[in-house]
Amino acid sequence: MAEELKPGTAETGFEHQDLSPRGVYIFLVGMAVGVILVAVVLMGLYHATDAYLRQHQPPQSPLAPQTQADTRQVSPEVINAFPQPRLERDERLEINSFRLQEEQVLDTYGWVDQKAGVVRIPIDRAMHLIAQRGLPTTPKAGNVPASEVNVVNQAAQRSDTSNMPVAKGKKKQ
């Protein structure tokens, strides 16, 4: 059989050299210096590119209003001059204000067209009125309202062939 190995012998054991804390600290400091160095280089590249683009910006059209020297910055007045739909700046804020405006319209009384006398009422009130009164129905002028008797009479008149002339060669029974 194989020999039993005793603890402390060369064949068994543990690693006698562990990583020292000093090495870990040196690595972390080097990593932090590297991150800071990369951030500084990227900021420098960004500012250099920005300065280059400012200098090489194409001239504005002579038809465009000369209100701003830097066309990359857009004021709110210029944004409102664009036709709808516009790009959103803050989606959550804009959708919340849009929903509040919709709820205001749906839940309050107000004029739709004051000259014509058209008003709007809250949805709950409209549902209550429809449940109470039913839907308004008005027949059109000159038309007979559809009923089973009228529909059957019209179908019978269309299918009546008793007054039609008989074709040659056929006898009328």
What does this structure look like?
The chain is mainly alpha-helical and 173 residues long. Among the domains are: 25-55; 102-135, no CATH class. The chain is built from 5 helices and 2 strands. It has helices at residues 21-55, 76-81, 91-107, 123-133, 148-159; strands at 110-113, 118-120. Strands 1-2 form a two-stranded antiparallel sheet. The longest helix is centred in the N-terminal third of the chain and has 35 residues, at 21-55. The termini are far apart.
What is shown here, in short?
With about 170 residues, this protein is mainly alpha-helical.
Class by alpha and beta content: mainly alpha
What is the straight-line distance between the termini? Answer: 122 Å
| Biggest sheet strand line-up | 1-2
Largest sheet: 2 strands, antiparallel
Features:
173 residues, mainly alpha, 47% helix
Fold topology:
Blueprint: H1 21-55, H2 76-81, H3 91-107, E1 110-113, E2 118-120, H4 123-133, H5 148-159
Antiparallel strand pairs: 1-2
